[in-house]
Amino acid sequence: MKKVFVNLLVCVMVIIAFAGCSRKSEKASTKNDNKIVIGFAQIGAESGWRTAETSSIKDTCANDPDVELKFSDAQQKQENQIKAIRNFIAQKVDVIAFSPVVESGWETVLTEAKDAGIPVILVDRGIEVEDESLYTTFIGSDFVEEGKNAAKFLIDHFGEDKTVNIVELQGTVGASAATDRKKGFEQGIESEEKYTIIESQTAEFTRSKGKEVMEAFLKSQGDKIDVLYAHNDDMALGAIQAIEEYGLVPGKDIIIVSIDGVKDAFVAIKDGKLNCTVECNPLLGPQLVQAAKDLVDGKTLERWIKSNEDVYYGQKAIDAFDIRQY
Ligand code: GZL
Description:
- It is built from eleven helices and twelve strands.
- It is of the alpha/beta class and 326 residues long.
- The chain binds beta-D-galactofuranose (GZL).
- Beta-D-galactofuranose is lined by residues 46-47, 49-50, 124-125, 140-141, 177, 205, 232, 234, 259-260, 280.
Protein backbone atom coordinates (compact mmCIF):
# COMPACT_ATOMS: atom_id res chain seq x y z
CA MET A 1 0.00 0.00 0.00
CA LYS A 2 2.76 2.38 1.08
CA LYS A 3 4.70 1.61 -2.14
CA VAL A 4 1.62 2.50 -4.26
CA PHE A 5 1.24 5.81 -2.37
CA VAL A 6 4.93 6.74 -2.90
CA ASN A 7 4.69 5.84 -6.62
CA LEU A 8 1.54 7.96 -6.92
CA LEU A 9 3.27 10.90 -5.18
CA VAL A 10 6.27 10.67 -7.52
CA CYS A 11 3.95 10.66 -10.58
CA VAL A 12 2.13 13.76 -9.33
CA MET A 13 5.44 15.60 -8.70
CA VAL A 14 6.71 14.71 -12.21
CA ILE A 15 3.47 16.04 -13.77
CA ILE A 16 3.76 19.31 -11.79
CA ALA A 17 7.40 19.69 -12.80
CA PHE A 18 6.59 19.25 -16.51
CA ALA A 19 3.68 21.71 -16.22
CA GLY A 20 6.03 24.29 -14.70
CA CYS A 21 8.58 23.81 -17.49
CA SER A 22 5.96 24.20 -20.17
CA ARG A 23 4.77 27.49 -18.58
CA LYS A 24 8.38 28.76 -18.45
CA SER A 25 9.11 27.67 -22.04
CA GLU A 26 5.78 29.21 -23.10
CA LYS A 27 6.85 32.49 -21.41
CA ALA A 28 10.32 32.16 -22.96
CA SER A 29 8.84 31.69 -26.43
CA THR A 30 6.87 34.96 -26.15
CA LYS A 31 9.83 36.68 -24.40
CA ASN A 32 12.36 36.17 -27.21
CA ASP A 33 14.65 33.66 -25.41
CA ASN A 34 14.59 35.45 -22.04
CA LYS A 35 15.85 38.89 -23.19
CA ILE A 36 14.56 41.87 -21.25
CA VAL A 37 11.97 43.46 -23.54
CA ILE A 38 11.71 47.27 -23.26
CA GLY A 39 8.84 49.08 -24.96
CA PHE A 40 9.83 52.72 -25.64
CA ALA A 41 7.25 55.28 -26.83
CA GLN A 42 9.21 58.22 -28.25
CA ILE A 43 7.65 61.65 -28.88
CA GLY A 44 8.94 62.17 -32.41
CA ALA A 45 11.94 63.82 -34.10
CA GLU A 46 11.27 67.54 -33.54
CA SER A 47 14.84 68.56 -32.68
CA GLY A 48 18.49 67.60 -32.87
CA TRP A 49 18.26 66.79 -29.18
CA ARG A 50 15.39 64.35 -29.72
CA THR A 51 17.15 62.49 -32.53
CA ALA A 52 20.27 62.23 -30.35
CA GLU A 53 18.16 60.74 -27.55
CA THR A 54 16.58 58.22 -29.93
CA SER A 55 20.00 57.18 -31.24
CA SER A 56 21.33 56.74 -27.72
CA ILE A 57 18.43 54.46 -26.73
CA LYS A 58 18.48 52.43 -29.97
CA ASP A 59 22.27 52.04 -30.02
CA THR A 60 22.47 51.01 -26.35
CA CYS A 61 19.79 48.35 -26.82
CA ALA A 62 21.23 47.11 -30.13
CA ASN A 63 24.61 46.59 -28.49
CA ASP A 64 23.22 44.70 -25.48
CA PRO A 65 22.58 40.97 -26.10
CA ASP A 66 20.30 40.80 -23.05
CA VAL A 67 17.88 43.47 -24.26
CA GLU A 68 15.21 43.68 -26.96
CA LEU A 69 13.79 47.14 -27.80
CA LYS A 70 10.29 47.73 -29.16
CA PHE A 71 10.28 51.37 -30.34
CA SER A 72 7.46 53.64 -31.48
CA ASP A 73 7.48 57.25 -32.78
CA ALA A 74 4.34 59.22 -31.80
CA GLN A 75 4.84 62.08 -34.29
CA GLN A 76 4.27 64.57 -31.41
CA LYS A 77 0.79 63.17 -30.63
CA GLN A 78 -0.15 62.06 -27.10
CA GLU A 79 -2.83 59.71 -28.45
CA ASN A 80 -0.13 57.86 -30.41
CA GLN A 81 2.00 57.47 -27.30
CA ILE A 82 -1.01 56.11 -25.40
CA LYS A 83 -1.72 53.66 -28.25
CA ALA A 84 1.92 52.53 -28.21
CA ILE A 85 1.85 51.96 -24.44
CA ARG A 86 -1.35 49.87 -24.80
CA ASN A 87 0.43 47.90 -27.50
CA PHE A 88 3.38 47.22 -25.22
CA ILE A 89 0.99 46.03 -22.50
CA ALA A 90 -0.67 43.63 -24.96
CA GLN A 91 2.76 42.31 -25.96
CA LYS A 92 3.59 41.77 -22.27
CA VAL A 93 6.92 43.65 -22.41
CA ASP A 94 9.03 43.59 -19.25
CA VAL A 95 9.37 47.39 -18.91
CA ILE A 96 7.57 50.34 -20.50
CA ALA A 97 9.48 53.60 -20.94
CA PHE A 98 8.44 56.86 -22.62
CA SER A 99 9.13 60.58 -22.96
CA PRO A 100 5.72 62.10 -22.22
CA VAL A 101 4.98 64.79 -24.80
CA VAL A 102 2.91 66.66 -22.18
CA GLU A 103 2.56 66.38 -18.39
CA SER A 104 -1.16 65.52 -18.11
CA GLY A 105 -3.55 62.80 -19.36
CA TRP A 106 -1.58 59.66 -18.45
CA GLU A 107 -3.53 58.23 -15.47
CA THR A 108 -5.75 55.79 -17.42
CA VAL A 109 -3.11 54.13 -19.57
CA LEU A 110 -0.52 54.00 -16.78
CA THR A 111 -3.12 52.38 -14.49
CA GLU A 112 -3.58 49.74 -17.21
CA ALA A 113 0.20 49.16 -17.18
CA LYS A 114 0.18 48.94 -13.38
CA ASP A 115 -2.72 46.45 -13.43
CA ALA A 116 -0.76 44.38 -15.97
CA GLY A 117 2.20 44.36 -13.57
CA ILE A 118 4.51 46.20 -16.01
CA PRO A 119 6.78 48.88 -14.45
CA VAL A 120 6.99 52.28 -16.18
CA ILE A 121 10.07 54.51 -16.52
CA LEU A 122 9.77 58.21 -17.50
CA VAL A 123 12.63 59.35 -19.73
CA ASP A 124 13.58 63.04 -20.18
CA ARG A 125 10.17 64.56 -19.39
CA GLY A 126 7.92 64.35 -16.32
CA ILE A 127 4.17 63.92 -15.75
CA GLU A 128 1.61 65.20 -13.25
CA VAL A 129 -0.21 62.26 -11.59
CA GLU A 130 -1.97 61.86 -8.20
CA ASP A 131 -0.82 58.24 -7.86
CA GLU A 132 2.97 58.36 -7.72
CA SER A 133 3.11 54.55 -8.06
CA LEU A 134 2.13 54.88 -11.74
CA TYR A 135 5.81 55.20 -12.61
CA THR A 136 8.92 53.84 -10.90
CA THR A 137 11.49 56.53 -11.76
CA PHE A 138 12.23 59.65 -13.84
CA ILE A 139 15.51 59.65 -15.77
CA GLY A 140 16.34 63.21 -16.85
CA SER A 141 17.35 66.78 -16.18
CA ASP A 142 16.38 69.51 -13.74
CA PHE A 143 14.63 71.91 -16.13
CA VAL A 144 14.06 74.55 -13.44
CA GLU A 145 17.83 74.59 -12.85
CA GLU A 146 18.43 74.92 -16.59
CA GLY A 147 16.14 77.97 -16.72
CA LYS A 148 17.92 79.51 -13.73
CA ASN A 149 21.32 78.93 -15.40
CA ALA A 150 20.11 80.72 -18.52
CA ALA A 151 19.02 83.69 -16.37
CA LYS A 152 22.34 83.68 -14.49
CA PHE A 153 24.27 83.92 -17.77
CA LEU A 154 22.30 87.04 -18.72
CA ILE A 155 22.77 88.72 -15.32
CA ASP A 156 26.52 88.00 -15.45
CA HIS A 157 26.57 89.42 -19.01
CA PHE A 158 24.54 92.62 -18.51
CA GLY A 159 24.92 93.32 -14.80
CA GLU A 160 22.02 94.57 -12.71
CA ASP A 161 21.73 98.23 -13.75
CA LYS A 162 20.88 97.79 -17.44
CA THR A 163 17.33 97.65 -18.74
CA VAL A 164 16.99 94.28 -20.50
CA ASN A 165 13.99 93.51 -22.74
CA ILE A 166 13.62 89.77 -23.31
CA VAL A 167 11.62 87.77 -25.84
CA GLU A 168 11.07 84.09 -25.03
CA LEU A 169 10.54 81.13 -27.37
CA GLN A 170 8.77 78.47 -25.33
CA GLY A 171 8.87 74.73 -26.02
CA THR A 172 5.80 72.54 -26.53
CA VAL A 173 2.83 73.85 -24.51
CA GLY A 174 2.21 71.56 -21.53
CA ALA A 175 5.59 69.82 -21.73
CA SER A 176 7.47 69.65 -18.42
CA ALA A 177 10.65 70.82 -20.17
CA ALA A 178 8.89 74.01 -21.30
CA THR A 179 6.90 74.64 -18.11
CA ASP A 180 9.91 74.23 -15.83
CA ARG A 181 12.43 76.08 -18.02
CA LYS A 182 10.01 79.02 -18.03
CA LYS A 183 9.56 78.75 -14.25
CA GLY A 184 13.31 78.54 -13.59
CA PHE A 185 14.12 81.49 -15.86
CA GLU A 186 11.46 83.68 -14.24
CA GLN A 187 12.77 82.76 -10.80
CA GLY A 188 16.29 83.58 -12.04
CA ILE A 189 15.40 87.14 -13.11
CA GLU A 190 12.87 87.76 -10.30
CA SER A 191 15.24 90.02 -8.36
CA GLU A 192 16.23 92.04 -11.45
CA GLU A 193 13.68 94.88 -11.74
CA LYS A 194 15.15 96.04 -15.06
CA TYR A 195 14.76 92.61 -16.74
CA THR A 196 11.41 92.25 -18.51
CA ILE A 197 9.97 89.49 -20.68
CA ILE A 198 8.17 91.62 -23.29
CA GLU A 199 6.94 88.72 -25.49
CA SER A 200 6.68 84.96 -24.89
CA GLN A 201 5.22 82.35 -27.25
CA THR A 202 5.62 78.67 -28.07
CA ALA A 203 7.63 77.64 -31.10
CA GLU A 204 7.17 73.91 -30.27
CA PHE A 205 10.91 73.14 -29.91
CA THR A 206 11.39 73.28 -33.70
CA ARG A 207 13.75 75.35 -35.86
CA SER A 208 11.10 76.32 -38.40
CA LYS A 209 8.64 77.59 -35.78
CA GLY A 210 11.50 79.34 -33.98
CA LYS A 211 12.19 81.35 -37.15
CA GLU A 212 8.51 82.07 -37.72
CA VAL A 213 7.78 83.29 -34.18
CA MET A 214 11.00 85.35 -34.02
CA GLU A 215 9.93 87.08 -37.26
CA ALA A 216 6.69 88.03 -35.50
CA PHE A 217 8.60 89.26 -32.41
CA LEU A 218 10.85 91.41 -34.59
CA LYS A 219 7.85 92.82 -36.41
CA SER A 220 6.14 93.83 -33.16
CA GLN A 221 9.15 94.76 -31.01
CA GLY A 222 11.99 95.39 -33.49
CA ASP A 223 15.00 97.19 -32.00
CA LYS A 224 13.49 97.07 -28.47
CA ILE A 225 14.65 93.44 -28.14
CA ASP A 226 17.88 93.03 -26.16
CA VAL A 227 17.71 89.26 -25.47
CA LEU A 228 16.25 86.08 -26.89
CA TYR A 229 15.76 83.24 -24.39
CA ALA A 230 14.88 80.00 -26.23
CA HIS A 231 13.86 76.79 -24.43
CA ASN A 232 15.99 74.80 -26.89
CA ASP A 233 18.82 75.33 -29.37
CA ASP A 234 16.75 74.41 -32.43
CA MET A 235 14.32 77.29 -31.87
CA ALA A 236 17.27 79.64 -31.23
CA LEU A 237 18.94 78.54 -34.48
CA GLY A 238 15.75 79.25 -36.41
CA ALA A 239 15.46 82.63 -34.69
CA ILE A 240 19.05 83.50 -35.64
CA GLN A 241 18.05 83.19 -39.30
CA ALA A 242 15.11 85.55 -38.71
CA ILE A 243 17.33 88.08 -36.90
CA GLU A 244 19.84 88.09 -39.77
CA GLU A 245 17.09 88.47 -42.38
CA TYR A 246 15.68 91.38 -40.35
CA GLY A 247 19.08 93.10 -40.62
CA LEU A 248 20.29 92.78 -37.02
CA VAL A 249 23.39 90.90 -35.81
CA PRO A 250 22.55 87.83 -33.66
CA GLY A 251 24.86 87.47 -30.67
CA LYS A 252 25.56 91.23 -30.68
CA ASP A 253 22.41 93.32 -31.34
CA ILE A 254 20.38 90.58 -29.68
CA ILE A 255 22.06 88.41 -27.01
CA ILE A 256 20.84 84.81 -27.34
CA VAL A 257 20.77 82.10 -24.67
CA SER A 258 19.24 78.66 -25.24
CA ILE A 259 19.20 75.14 -23.80
CA ASP A 260 20.25 71.64 -24.99
CA GLY A 261 23.92 71.92 -26.04
CA VAL A 262 23.57 70.29 -29.47
CA LYS A 263 26.55 70.50 -31.83
CA ASP A 264 24.93 73.12 -34.07
CA ALA A 265 24.66 75.38 -31.03
CA PHE A 266 28.41 75.09 -30.46
CA VAL A 267 28.98 76.02 -34.12
CA ALA A 268 26.74 79.08 -33.65
CA ILE A 269 28.71 80.09 -30.53
CA LYS A 270 31.97 79.70 -32.46
CA ASP A 271 30.46 81.93 -35.20
CA GLY A 272 29.47 84.53 -32.58
CA LYS A 273 25.73 84.17 -33.35
CA LEU A 274 24.70 82.39 -30.13
CA ASN A 275 25.99 83.53 -26.75
CA CYS A 276 25.28 80.60 -24.43
CA THR A 277 23.82 77.10 -24.44
CA VAL A 278 22.78 75.37 -21.21
CA GLU A 279 23.47 71.64 -21.55
CA CYS A 280 20.61 69.12 -21.34
CA ASN A 281 21.96 65.60 -21.81
CA PRO A 282 19.99 63.44 -24.32
CA LEU A 283 22.31 60.42 -24.10
CA LEU A 284 19.99 58.56 -21.73
CA GLY A 285 20.17 55.09 -23.35
CA PRO A 286 22.67 53.55 -20.91
CA GLN A 287 20.76 54.81 -17.84
CA LEU A 288 17.45 53.53 -19.28
CA VAL A 289 18.82 50.03 -19.96
CA GLN A 290 20.47 49.81 -16.54
CA ALA A 291 17.25 50.95 -14.84
CA ALA A 292 15.23 48.34 -16.77
CA LYS A 293 17.66 45.58 -15.78
CA ASP A 294 17.55 46.67 -12.13
CA LEU A 295 13.73 46.64 -12.17
CA VAL A 296 13.63 43.12 -13.67
CA ASP A 297 16.13 42.04 -10.99
CA GLY A 298 13.71 43.35 -8.36
CA LYS A 299 15.87 46.29 -7.28
CA THR A 300 14.33 49.57 -6.07
CA LEU A 301 15.32 52.60 -8.15
CA GLU A 302 15.87 56.19 -7.06
CA ARG A 303 12.78 58.25 -7.77
CA TRP A 304 14.84 60.64 -9.95
CA ILE A 305 17.95 59.50 -11.84
CA LYS A 306 19.29 63.00 -12.50
CA SER A 307 21.51 64.06 -15.42
CA ASN A 308 24.67 66.04 -14.63
CA GLU A 309 25.01 69.06 -16.89
CA ASP A 310 27.07 72.17 -17.61
CA VAL A 311 26.75 75.64 -19.18
CA TYR A 312 28.74 76.55 -22.29
CA TYR A 313 29.72 79.97 -23.65
CA GLY A 314 32.76 81.79 -25.05
CA GLN A 315 36.11 80.00 -25.14
CA LYS A 316 34.80 77.14 -22.96
CA ALA A 317 32.27 76.26 -25.68
CA ILE A 318 34.90 76.54 -28.43
CA ASP A 319 37.31 74.31 -26.51
CA ALA A 320 34.58 71.69 -25.87
CA PHE A 321 33.45 71.49 -29.51
CA ASP A 322 35.62 68.54 -30.59
CA ILE A 323 34.57 66.31 -27.69
CA ARG A 324 30.82 66.90 -27.93
CA GLN A 325 28.96 63.60 -28.48
CA TYR A 326 25.66 64.93 -29.85
C1 GZL B 1 14.43 67.92 -22.82
C2 GZL B 1 13.62 67.52 -24.02
C3 GZL B 1 13.37 68.68 -24.94
C4 GZL B 1 14.63 69.29 -25.56
C5 GZL B 1 14.14 69.66 -26.92
O1 GZL B 1 14.60 66.81 -21.98
O2 GZL B 1 12.38 66.97 -23.63
O3 GZL B 1 12.56 68.22 -26.03
O4 GZL B 1 15.15 70.38 -24.86
C6 GZL B 1 13.29 68.46 -27.25
O5 GZL B 1 15.14 69.90 -27.89
O6 GZL B 1 12.47 68.70 -28.33
